[in-house]
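Table S4 entry, Serine acetyltransferase.
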Amino acid sequence: MAHPHSKLASVDPVWDQIKRDAQQAVTDEPLIGGFVHATILHHPTIEKALSYRVAAKLSSNEMSMMVVREVVEQAYLEDPGLVEAARADLVAIFERDPACHRLLQPILYFKGFQAVQAYRVGHHLWMQGKRDLAYFFQMRVSEIFGVDIHPAAKLGKGIMIDHAHSIVIGETAVVGDNVSMLHSVTLGGTGKEEEDRHPKIGDGVLIGAGAKVLGNITIGHCSRIAAGSVVLEAVPACKTVAGIPARIVGEAGCDQPSISMNHMLGPWEE
């Protein structure tokens, strides 16, 4: 009887390309052959490869790789949308990050991608009522990657977190689809209240390095937040904001700022 995933794997262009990239990587650099085989080529599907990679990064003396991998695989079985989102994240990074030349790279090397996939499993656990296990995943993601995303936060698909150092996303934050952010971004609250207190980021938003978005405010679709800005008020769709505190300095400059990754202010902006 054929493996239940064999037909899926044969028509999965993302996974097929990742395997081709992996084979080429081994040819180019035989010294990483064991690493690439264990992480990619040994596995029949992208789900298996992702579960292995997440477990390899998050496991510790406190929870073995075998146990972490079982948790991840069970989450993927219960919610196939987690892997669909992972594929969208992979393609987003490949299309937007000029340092990404192969679909293989984010799985092997990019902590932004790895951290988001581990968060996605933690969020699934949170929604299943497995709060302590979700907190464990959050803790390990923070320790290993320097990325602290509360498992209750809601992230869409096609997320790119470039460099991914010192990212903080709070409990009631919502991030839409096709959002790009750089290192040291904070989506934080402004007080100790337990109610809805974190930002709501629309689809297609670009958030520059070091930007802080604070409070239960809405950042409109396809807007841009300039690097180093502190955003304390809602931002309309398709606008660029900059400064401390941030103010509107112009239009977004294009239809999809998160895809173009253009951080430069136009001649109409100051």
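The longest strand covers residues 247-251.
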